[in-house]
């Protein structure tokens, strides 16, 4: 099995340089100058100023017809031209977590069109979702987006649409850190 | 937030005494005389002969109408009369994990009636599911069932029905350990 556990390490050095740190909602976290993403284990990382752990899981809401479309268009993380990134750490409310699968799916797609609206931005924006709630971490989710500098506006539009969706009413805390890749 | 992480520790002492150890399918694990279940952290346990970690997650398949019925009838773990237990460690196939939510739900409930058939046994059998796959543990799931000695036959019937279901075609490894609670 491939590794499913990753650490987002914020500190004074790393592959990604912080260009902006926005506390969108809720309690802030300490500002750092760099973030590194490293394959990890369940052991607590001692590196950096902070380290948030996230796990890659199976998909929770996507249905087959959607996945087929997504797989056809979504780019991989690590494209050479994708030197911009956004790290979004977030919590959803107790109300969200008390919902059943059908209720969450209803809000996720039928009311918020999370997959549908992402679709038009996906050819240019790579994304990866890490789950943290199940392992008692500080945040529920860590989301990572990568795009070329010329696609910054597309990313802002995607984010704006998501934040205006019904689903986002359940977001109780959100930290948005923008980054640029350090040339090797 | 409540703790979501637990260790199942197999060793020479513990709250539950092993009465039977059945390798239903796939690679066996070492036989132990006792199992203890302890609230844990992400750190690897050094206790016992083996220790498997599982996490409590939000429900993945249950829908609201089902949850309402389940909540009305399902007993809690830890009833005084429930001195029998079954610990089932299992893996599902890559094919299962590559499926989307709608495909897994289709097999889970429409074809296998996992919730529906469990319903008739639930008033007497308490159960709890721990997820392990997302944290790169040896098994995908750890399931724990508790029942009174007089409900042993009901438990066997539940298990027989589940094992005969379409869902169980995706089970690639299954260890079933039976236990009895040690009187304090």
Q: Over the alpha carbons, how many angstroms does the gyration radius of chain A reach?
A: 16 Å
Task: Give the mean pLDDT of chain A.
Answer: 93
CATH class of chain A: Alpha Beta
Major sheet of chain A: order of its strands?
Answer: 4-1-3-2-8-5-7-6
Class of secondary structure makeup of chain A: alpha+beta
Judging by the overall fold, what is the CATH architecture of chain A?
Answer: 2-Layer Sandwich
Q: How is the quaternary structure best described?
A: homodimer
- Our measurement of the CA-to-CA distance between the termini of chain A, rounded to an integer number of angstroms, reads 30 Å
Strand content of chain A: 25-35%
Number of alpha- plus pi-helical segments of chain A: 5
Largest beta-sheet characterization of chain A: 8 strands, antiparallel
- What is the percent of helical residues of chain A? 10-25%
Order of helices and strands of chain A: EEEEHEHHHEEHE
The number of E-state strands of chain A comes to 8
Q: Rough shape of chain A?
A: globular
Description:
2 copies of one chain form a homodimer. The first copy, chain A, has 5 helices and 8 strands. Chain A is 23% helix and 34% strand. In chain A, a hairpin with an 8-residue loop joins β2 and β3. The longest helix of chain A is centred in the last third of the chain and has 12 residues. Chain A has a single domain, classed as Alpha-Beta Plaits (2-Layer Sandwich), CATH 3.30.70. With 184 residues, chain A is of the alpha+beta class. The first copy, chain A, starts with a strand and ends with a strand. At the A-B interface, α1 and α3 of A face α1 and α3 of B.
């Amino acid at each position: 099995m491939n590794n499913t556990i990753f650490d987002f390490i914020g500190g004074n050095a790393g592959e990604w340089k912080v260009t902006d740190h926005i506390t969108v909602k809720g309690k802030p976290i300490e500002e750092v100058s760099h973030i590194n993403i490293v394959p990890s284990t369940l052991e607590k990382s001692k590196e950096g100023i902070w380290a948030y752990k996230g796990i890659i899981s199976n998909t929770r809401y996507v249905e087959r017809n959607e996945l087929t479309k997504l797989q056809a268009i979504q780019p991989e993380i690590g494209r050479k031209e994708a030197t911009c990134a956004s790290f979004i750490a977030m919590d959803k409310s107790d109300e969200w977590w008390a919902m059943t699968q059908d209720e969450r799916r209803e809000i996720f797609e039928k009311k918020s069109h999370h997959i549908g609206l992402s679709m038009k931005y996906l050819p240019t924006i790579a994304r990866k979702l890490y789950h943290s709630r199940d392992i008692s971490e500080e945040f529920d989710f860590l989301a990572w987006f990568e795009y070329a500098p010329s696609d910054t506006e597309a990313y802002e539009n995607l984010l704006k649409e998501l934040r205006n969706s019904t689903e986002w009413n359940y977001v109780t805390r959100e930290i948005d850190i923008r980054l640029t890749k350090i040339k090797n």
